[in-house]
Amino acid sequence: xxxxxxxxxxxxxxxxxxxxxxxxxxxxxxxxxxxxxxxxxxxxxxxxxxxxxxxxxxxxxxxxxxxxxxxxxxxxxxxxxxxxxxxxxxxxxxxxxxxxxxxxxxxxxxxxxxxxxxxxxxxxxxxxxxxxxxxxxxxxxxxxxxxxxxxxxxxxxxxxxxxxxxxxxxxxxxxxxxxxxxxxxxxxxxxxxxxxxxxxxxxxxxxxxxxxxxxxxxxxxxxx
Length: 224
Ligand SMILES: [Zn+2]
What we know:
- By secondary structure, the chain is α/β, with parallel strands linked by helices.
- It has helices spanning 50-65, 86-89, 104-108, 136-146, 150-167, 184-192, 199-222, and strands spanning 36-43, 69-75, 96-102, 118-121, 131-135.
- The protein has one domain (32-222): Collagenase (Catalytic Domain) (3-Layer(aba) Sandwich).
- The protein is built from seven helices and five strands.
- Strands 2-1-3-5-4 form a five-stranded mixed beta sheet.
- Helix 1 (50-65) packs across helix 5 and helix 4 packs across helix 5 (150-167).
- The protein binds zinc ion (ZN).
């Protein structure tokens, strides 16, 4: 993780917003149903097991709305737990995303004024960023402050960080799930299940997933 590779995905920043605000009316019916990514979850924060599972459901629903199917894997913590899932042991491909849910102590090493809830490490040029971290103690704090469920917030924040990986740098928005900072309105919409990516973001993410799937196919052909 070099500095040049690192992109702070802040929800604390109020940025000059360049993404047009669009109505969020398009649904997955207009998308290619075959678009798919796989997400490996590493629960370093030892969040109660039901929390990441429910969060995955929230994030899956959000990506489905954008026409992207997600496959979720609960993977063992490297060096601490024995990995029993063969899919977690497989070498990550371009369509494999890795999300680490970090406790406060680990999060502090990554946190800066750009990062309130997590970080995504986007790639430069034509590369594919695949790693994101969530600061779980911030999820707990937001949950307590807004009297909102942790799994629900965690799911939305995971979707936000994966959104950075699929949208590239400078991907905060004036509306929807990529909006920053998170305020009462975002949390209320999350609670109602109406906080999504904008249609324009969905289109860009779909293009990105298509590119990643093509890269996997090329890699598979080359290895035959
Ligand atoms: Zn962000």
